[in-house]
């Protein structure tokens, strides 16, 4: 358990760095749906210090990643946690039931990590998830590989779809001055 930290999920393959400096890259890789705790922001909001257990590792690792590799949001983090729980399930019948439960959950289907979840369990091509004409699809097409330090989500408020975009430092409660 991490105190004074904010939960995030990794949304694309990321390298772990010893310091917020590209020259300190380690051999540790984080993959989509890894869950991490964020402690601090450095470098004009370009870097975040995290701690988490990379897929396939026995021990937690601590270091720095670039902002464009992490995503916040309760539902995205829930998808990452569900993926770890389902992956750890030994009983195949229970695993299938849990997987079906997550895939059928309409609250999770419009989340950014949903395609990564589907891909992890071999459901179908994750690149086909977003409709070209959907608000979230339009937003993601504008971002160069989601490289900006923003997180986005599609909310359904009383039948009206609404795209919410939030700067990641706002989520942490940090500003560039505090970083």
How would you summarize the topology of this molecule?
Layout: E1 6-10, E2 14-17, E3 25-30, E4 35-42, E5 47-52, E6 61-66, E7 70-71, H1 74-88, H2 92-103, H3 114-120, H4 135-142, E8 150-157, E9 160-167, H5 168-172
Antiparallel strand pairs: 1-4, 1-7, 2-3, 4-5, 5-6, 8-9
Helix pairs in contact: 1-2
Concise overview:
The chain is an alpha+beta fold and 179 residues long. The chain has helices at 74-88, 92-103, 114-120, 135-142, 168-172, and strands spanning 6-10, 14-17, 25-30, 35-42, 47-52, 61-66, 70-71, 150-157, 160-167.
Q: Largest sheet at a glance?
A: 5 strands, antiparallel
| Total domain units | 1
Output the CATH class name.
Answer: Mainly Beta
Rg is: 16 Å
Task: Please tell me about this protein's structure.
The chain has one domain: SH3 type barrels. Helix 1 packs antiparallel against helix 2. Helix content is 26%, strand content 30%. The longest helix is centred in the middle third of the chain and has 15 residues. The two termini are 23 Å apart. The C terminus is likely disordered. The chain contains 5 helices and 9 strands. It is α+β, with helices and mostly antiparallel strands and 179 residues long. Strands 6-5-4-1-7 form a 5-stranded antiparallel sheet. Strands 2-3 form a two-stranded antiparallel sheet. Strands 8-9 form a two-stranded antiparallel sheet.
